Amino acid sequence: MPINAEWHLAHRMPQNATFEARAAWHLDHAEHCGCRPIPAKLAEQMRERGLPAE
């Protein structure tokens, strides 16, 4: 899927983001852009905490 540049410009990952912020950003990203998958390590941590990682 091509990059949704407009979404990326409007939704910057905060500096020093918490786990919760990173997980939420990546889930939102997957819904609106999906130019890349959720990083494997983060996806693993999300699954361990019972969060969707797709």
Structure description:
The protein is an all-alpha fold. It contains 3 helices and no strands. 4% of the residues are buried. The mean pLDDT is 93.
Total strand count, please?
0
Unreliable parts: none
**Helix percentage:** 40-55%
Gyration radius from CA atoms, angstroms:
11 Å
H/I helix tally? 3
Structural class assignment: mainly alpha
Average pLDDT reading: 93
Residue fraction in strands: under 5%
The helix/strand series, from N terminus to C terminus, equals HHH
What gross morphology would you assign? globular
Measured between the Cα atoms of the first and last residue, the distance is 15 Å
Strand count, sense and barrel status of the largest sheet are: none
Task: Summarize, please.
The chain is mainly alpha-helical.
Quickly list its features.
globular; 3 helices; mainly alpha; about 55 residues
Layout of helices and strands:
Elements: H1 5-10, H2 19-32, H3 40-48
